[in-house]
Amino acid sequence: MADAIRFTGLTSGLDTESIVKALVATDKSKVDNLKKEEMLMELKQEEWKKMNNTLMDFYTDTVGTLRHQGSFDSKIITNTNEDSLTIHEGSNIPDGTHEIIIGQLASSAQLKTDQIYKVDPDTHMPTDEPELVTKDTKLSETSSYMSTQGDDATYTIKIGEEEVEILGSDTMEDIANKIKEVDDSLNVNFDQGRFMISNKETGEFDIDISADATVGEYDNSDVLKALFGEGNLTDNEDGTYNVKFNKGTNAHYEYNGNDYESTSNSVTVNGISMTFKQTTGAYSEEDGVTATDGDSKILVSSEQDQDAIYETIVSFIEDYNTLLEDLNSKIDMPGSDDYMPLTDEEMAEMSDYEIELWNKKIEENIFADDPALQDFVDTLRGALGSNEDLISMGITTGNWKEQGKLHIDEEKLKEAISENADKIIEAFAGGTDADGNETEGVMDELYTKFSDQIATTTLNSFGSFYNDKVIDEKLRNIATDIIKYQDRYETREDYYFSKFNAMEQMMNEWNSQSAVFASA
Q1: CA neighbours within 13 Å on the CB side: how many for 25?
Q2: Among 471, 511, 505, CA closest to 48
Q3: pLDDT at 4 over 60
Q4: Where are the alpha helices (DSSP H) in 255-364?
Q5: What's residue 36's pLDDT?
Q6: For position 10, what pLDDT does the model report?
């Protein structure tokens, strides 16, 4: 084997190692060159993966973002009464000034309830020192009637059309949970000695809790009296009772002179997403929404943020130039076959500094004249370098030696944005023509072309700007060739050493015979 320890030339005096090394030099060189090629291809694969991440970031984060008008179309929003009205981010507010009067807020329906006090379980009368009922207090401890009937009494109340069975042994928390289980649209809690029940949603909705006094063994209306207070019941004069409630209200507001109504205080009208926090005017069914004083009208204004549009374009051009300069510098490296990865034998003859410089030279030349990287650059320059819309706004290429670098005439760009910001945005992100047809901007063009480049083919996987499948195939072929030629090299080396060993043995035998004859 090539790495075996041999003791040769002891009889002949020949430098057998050097002779065999010379004889198999061609085979060894073949193996070394294949290993160098493999190392170079692995380095290329590694560097391309890094480069692909950079190109993908530009494709998705930069081009992919700027192909949408929202990336450019920033607004300056003013609100004259932030205490009463909140304007939410993402609102697509038409340019101009909008007038809003908040006449009435939306509210939730709420039950009227009294605080409940415990009774003495022995006397069935209120305690000498009034003690508020807690969530752990049983129903049978809340009034003289409930106390008299005891823990085993069973009552029936209705939540809407659903019947709920209430036991004398139920605690206030048990009862609250039973109501919530039947109607999940209600907020139900017991705190501070009273039930707190309201609709989860705002708007003109009812809360229907009732009882039929004539059903069952016990008077069910007494449960309502015990839980909510006798004064908070409505006697329907037919044996049924309802718990009184404060009806919920809808929000009423005026927008640019027109009245609107909503069950919620969060509304969207004409692209404005807003939340009402307090009224600024008044509302009545007869008069609708009206102003009460000069401050009733809230003024919301919107205008394009032209500075933001300008900064977005400038930032993109800077990113474009930086990327283009970096790619051009890599492609334009002279490249040289003189700089291949070093073998262990070669590195043994060099200093660390020399090795570092050598490897740096290889990395610098890895993308020299790379066709895939050149395709990306050509796509960039083709879309932006001679675009008439960009030229008209002051974005042009310079000297040919700059290889596509873009220059901005700041005054001309600012003037173009000031005169027609929508046109500038459409040049980048597209828009709609006079016939209502969608138009493409330069970012759409770039995005489409890049999408085509990273589509799956026989040469590359999806999302790859380079022929990753080709590199993988080359590496597999090289690995196979290395095994093949390594075997050939070692076989030939073993062959030559075996021949020299045979010669040594023959010379030993000859020497032995000569010694016999000489001593005869």
Answers
A1: 6
A2: 471
A3: no
A4: 306-331, 344-348, 352-364
A5: 87
A6: 46
- What is the rounded average pLDDT of the residues 24-36? 84
For 266-270, which contacts have Cβ atoms below 8 Å and span 24 or more sequence positions?
Answer: 268/91, 270/93, 270/94, 270/98
**To which residue do tokens 């391309």 refer?**
48
Structure tokens at 374: 């050149």
Exposure pattern of 408-428 as b/e (b: 16+ CB <10 Å)?
beeeebbebbeeebeebbbbb
* Cα separation values, 341 from 336, 347, 356, Å: 12, 10, 11
How much is the CA Rg of the chain, to the nearest whole Å? 45
Q: Which two tokens stand for residue 486?
A: 């390594």
Average pLDDT, the chain: 88
What is the pLDDT, as a whole number, of residue 2? 47
SS3 85: strand
**Mean pLDDT computed over 223-231:** 91
Structure tokens at 107: 């509210």
| Token representation of residue 43 | 């380095």
Q: Is the pLDDT of residue 446 over 60?
A: yes
The residues facing 301 across adjacent strands are 78, 97
d(CA 220, CA 79): 54
Q: Quote the tokens at residue 145.
A: 């009637």
- pTM for the full predicted model: 0.63
- pLDDT given at position 176: 95
Q: Enumerate the domain spans of the chain.
A: 26-71+307-471, 75-106+250-303, 110-246
If we measure between CA atoms, which residue out of 138, 142, 140 comes closest to residue 119? 142
Whether 9 has a pLDDT exceeding 70, the answer reads no
Q: Band of the pLDDT at 48, cuts 50, 70, 90?
A: very high
What are the two backbone dihedrals, phi and then psi, of residue 233, each rounded to the nearest 5 degrees? -110, 150
pLDDT at 503 over 60: yes
Closest CA to 320 of 309, 312, 331: 312
Can you point out the beta strands (E) in 88-226? Answer: 96-104, 110-111, 154-159, 162-167, 186-191, 194-199, 209-212
Tell me phi and psi for residue 200, to 5 degrees.
Answer: -70, -35
Confidence category of residue 355, pLDDT binned at 50, 70, 90: confident
Contact 247, 206 (CB under 8 A): yes
- Contact (Cβ atoms closer than 8 angstroms) between residue 217 and residue 152: no
DSSP secondary structure code for residue 401 in this structure: G
